């Protein structure tokens, strides 16, 4: 994974009221030409105060991957700790998904055509899933502590869920460009803009 650091620019927050919450938006800005793969990134926040975690949004109780036509889709997905990962086989051949990632280690599970299996996600971290029968099939699943995350569009623009006042660390992870962490201190309600340059 490329660990080239991001360059980060913070724009001054606008001090407008928003029901006690701050709206955090921003953009991933490529160095050269526009890069459509920016939509594969994941932008998420972790509170520095553990008590803030209870005030952050929840998320779905499951994530889903599907073997189809020689690939495992989506290539990048997100789930939260305690949720389930469903792996479906939409092909007419058997697949055997497995992972050696510490966050969700499991051996090859034989999945018949038109059926599926489920794995409990008990730990946070990156989970890389492969197929024992087909070397070119793989996917990455980022397991997060909370539901305060978002995906940018193809231009790199993103908007996080509204956040209460407090100190956080913003994480911007991309499967090719790597990850950068940036601390922020939300002192006022209203919009806050962040730009990440690489």
Q: Can you put this structure into words, describing what you see?
A:
The structure is a single chain. The chain has 198 residues and is mainly β. The chain folds into two domains: 7-58 and 147-197, Immunoglobulin-like (Sandwich); 62-144, Sandwich (Immunoglobulin-like). Helices cover 0% and strands 47% of the residues. The chain has no helices and 17 strands. The chain has strands at 7-10, 21-29, 42-47, 62-68, 71-73, 76-80, 84-89, 97-98, 116-120, 125-131, 138-144, 149-150, 157-159, 163-164, 166-174, 178-186, 190-197. Strands 1, 2, 13, 14 and 17 form a five-stranded mixed β-sheet that branches.
Question: What is the strand and helix layout of this fold?
Answer:
Elements: E1 7-10, E2 21-29, E3 42-47, E4 62-68, E5 71-73, E6 76-80, E7 84-89, E8 97-98, E9 116-120, E10 125-131, E11 138-144, E12 149-150, E13 157-159, E14 163-164, E15 166-174, E16 178-186, E17 190-197
Parallel strand pairs: 2-17, 4-7, 6-11
Antiparallel strand pairs: 1-17, 2-13, 2-14, 3-12, 3-15, 4-5, 7-9, 8-10, 10-11, 15-16
Protein name: Rhamnogalacturonan lyase domain-containing protein
Keywords: Signal
Organism: Eiseniibacteriota bacterium
């Amino acid at each position: 994974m490329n660990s080239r650091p991001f360059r980060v620019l913070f724009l001054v927050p606008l001090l407008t009221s928003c029901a006690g919450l701050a709206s955090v938006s921003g953009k991933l800005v490529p160095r050269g030409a526009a890069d459509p793969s920016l939509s594969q990134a994941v932008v998420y926040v972790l509170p520095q105060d553990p008590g803030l975690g209870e005030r952050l949004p929840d998320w779905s109780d499951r994530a889903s991957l599907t073997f189809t036509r020689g690939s495992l889709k989506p290539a990048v997905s997100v789930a939260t700790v305690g949720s389930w990962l469903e792996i479906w086989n939409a092909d007419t051949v058997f697949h055997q998904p497995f992972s050696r990632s510490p966050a969700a280690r499991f051996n090859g599970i034989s999945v018949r055509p038109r059926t599926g299996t489920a794995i409990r996600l008990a730990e946070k971290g990156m989970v890389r899933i492969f197929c024992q029968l087909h070397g070119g099939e793989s996917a990455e699943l980022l397991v997060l502590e909370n539901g305060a995350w978002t995906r940018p569009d193809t231009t790199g623009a993103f908007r996080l869920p509204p956040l209460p006042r407090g100190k956080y660390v913003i994480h911007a992870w991309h499967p090719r460009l790597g990850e950068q962490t940036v601390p922020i201190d939300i002192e006022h309600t209203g919009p806050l803009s962040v730009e990440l340059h690489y």
